[in-house]
Amino acid sequence: MKSALLVMDVQRSVVDLTDAGPEFLHRVRRAMDGARSAGIPVIHVTIALRPGFPEVGTHNRALSAIAQAGLYVEGAAGTEIHPEVAPLPGEVVVTKRRASAFSGSDLDVVLRARGIDSLVLTGIATGAVVLSTLCQANDLDFGLTVLADACLDPDPEVHRVLTERLFPQWARVLGVDDWAGGLAARRDRS
C-alpha cells in the first residue's frame, strides 16, 4: 500500500477557534516529520469559501453558521495553514468547500495520480473534517489510519467517542508516537 498523510484544516483561524495548543501542533508536526522521513507524501487540506459564499446552501446548518460568522473566506489571513505545520516547497495543498477533504476539491485526482491507496488522517475537528473524510475515504476503498492524538475536537467527548468507538470500525487508530515509531522500525529493517 502507498500512503499519504493528510493534515486537514490546521489553519490559523481553526487553531484559534478551537484553542489547539502547542502540544497538539507539536504532535501534528511529529507526524509530518515521520511521514517525510519515510518518504510518505504530506498533503495539506484547507477549507476556503468564496467571497459571498455562493457554495453555501441554506439547508447546510454548519456552513450557514460559518458564512454568517464570515469565517474561512478565500484569501483571508485566517485560512492560511498554521505556520507550525506549514507545507514544505512542493507539498500539495488542497482546498475544499465542505467538511470532507474530498468535497469540492481535487484530492481524489491528486491521490489517484500518485497511486495512493491508503490515508493517514490528522486534523481539526474530529467530528467534522476527520469524520467526513474518513467516511468518504472508506466508501472509496482507501486503507485508513487515524492518528487520534493528532486530531482535535472542541468537544472532548465527541473526540473520545469517535476515536474509541466509531473510527476503529473502519480504520486503525493509533497515536503519533506509535505510528511514527512503526515507520522508523520499518526504515531500520530496510
Automatic annotation (TrEMBL):
Keywords: Hydrolase. CDD domains: cysteine_hydrolases (cd00431). InterPro entries: Isochorismatase-like_dom (IPR000868), Isochorismatase-like_hydrls (IPR050272), Isochorismatase-like_sf (IPR036380). Residues 3-177 form the Isochorismatase-like domain. GO terms for molecular function: hydrolase activity. This is Cysteine hydrolase family protein. The lineage of its organism: Bacteria, Bacillati, Actinomycetota, Actinomycetes, Kitasatosporales.
